[in-house]
Design brief:
Layout: H1 2-6, H2 9-19, H3 22-27, H4 30-44, E1 47-55, E2 59-66, E3 72-79, E4 87-94
Antiparallel strand pairs: 1-2, 2-3, 3-4
Helix pairs in contact: 2-4
């Protein structure tokens, strides 16, 4: 989140190379992930955690808010159980407006 919010996609690329499980990157390569995150950054700006919906040993689900337009997004992330706990699932989706 720190690299995303800073707009430092070079460092984010490096993090993805070491922090994501290899099979996950085969399904959705780093460059495609970076394009998606750059588009999200242009649309929503920096993101801030406003709620922890669920947190388990190896998974977390957060609600984030964007600085542009105040859109709400859900981030889901799982890591594998063995060290170094690489990311096995990551998704970021817009939440429908409530109410």
């Amino acid at each position: 989140m720190r690299y995303y919010n800073a707009g430092d996609f070079r460092k984010l690329r490096g993090f993805m190379r070491s922090g994501y499980y290899d099979l996950v990157l085969m399904e959705n390569p780093i460059e495609r992930r970076l394009l998606d995150l750059k588009a999200t950054r242009r649309l929503h700006g920096r993101l801030k955690v406003i709620e922890v919906e669920d947190a388990q040993d190896y998974a977390i689900r957060l609600v984030l808010i964007g600085e542009k337009g105040r859109a709400r997004l859900r981030l889901r992330m799982n890591v594998n159980e063995s060290y170094p706990h690489q990311i096995t699932h990551y998704s970021l989706q817009s939440l429908a407006a409530e109410g």
